[in-house]
Amino acid sequence: MVKLSASLEQLLRDARIDLVLSRIEKDSSIIEEVIKLVDSEIRSIRFNSIFILGAIGELAGQNAALKVAECLDDSDWSVCREAARTLGKIGLLTESSITKLSNLGSNDEVTIRIAVASSLGQIGKATNEAIKALKQLLKDKNEEVRSEAARSLGIFGTEAYEAIPDLMNSMKDPNWTVRTSAAQAISNIGKGTIKAIPTLINALEDKDWRVRFRVVNTLSQIGEETVPHLLNILNHKSSIVRIGAIESLGELKLPKPEIITALSNKLIDKNSQIRGKAADALRSIGKPAVPALIEVLKSANKKIKILIITAIAGIGIDAQDSIPQIITELKDQKTSVRLEAARTLGAIGKDSEDAIIALSEALNDEKSVIRKEAALSLGKIGPNAIKVVPSLLKVLDDKKPDVRWRASEALGKIKLNTPEVINALESMIHDECDYVCESAEVAIENIKENY
Fold first, then answer.
1. Which of 36, 124, 414, 450 shows its CA 20 to 30 Å from the CA of 396?
2. What is the pTM of this model?
């Protein structure tokens, strides 16, 4: 055993961490030898022993936790710092060292303060001493210390409720990482965050998008209590704030009439980004938002129509009530509107005979891009569109290859196995356009695979 200890000492002196860890993996009793060497007078052995114990974490055990805690008083600042780090890595077993560790929060060495802020969170016990120390570290002159302190308070969760006012102040920190960590911490603390809502709302004005993103996420996690505050700022002078409010309401996905009405009003905002975010938010709310989308669609201009129709498509089959209005838009004078309407009917019209008939008629549109999209949508609808097969067969003679391609593809998805369909597709195998030929071959295979 003496020889082994001597050998172990040499490995630790030379910082052969990998070899020591390998030995521990084979023989856990070596951990006790490493613990004993924490008392070594040789700085490198002392330091590396502590490092090893941190590397194996909880496996180091209670004895290691107690021994490492003694090193918080070490005269060598780097050993002291490593001890602080290791206590965090060992975790809850080091609970008895929290008071001593917390007292190091006022140490002059910044790396020690960083280690303290981080390790208190890793230990995970929200004692009065730990919370008090972390609250003080939120005011540290070093941004990394402040950020780690916020992060650790977030780890404590609801037990750190008393730190919310301090975290709210940190939302004004000049450093974005601190502001982001503070917002995340407030979110993690949970139920007690209602009092932080006004500060979070103000933080939507932050110039850094990463902070705004985190604030939006935090507000959505707080839940329904944020709604009155968010609605109040939908007309804020800053477009950034309005966007943040809209995004937060969308994340909440609450089908409240007042939310849907407010978001619908933003569909006609002068700012195109605001309009887009409002449409996205209503799409997130889903089916309850469809009537409001339809109502705005009826009198909208081209750009807004396309925006709304796209949102309806995103809602999918739950937006079936909008089919009559979308069919109306399929006859709009603007090609771009008709195109979006044709695309949307493919997304929401699977069970609608009216939608299928409208798409069949669109196969005769003067614009080839509409004919192509109508065929593509009929393919998405699939077997339910069997009644329009004759119309698709006629389109196989379209002068535009993209239209022929989508029509043959649609026939393959509808899968009506009749001589007329098969013969028509076989004639397409020799089309002048290669991708039309390939589509026809695939369509024939799809039709015949179940027969």
1. 450
2. 0.74
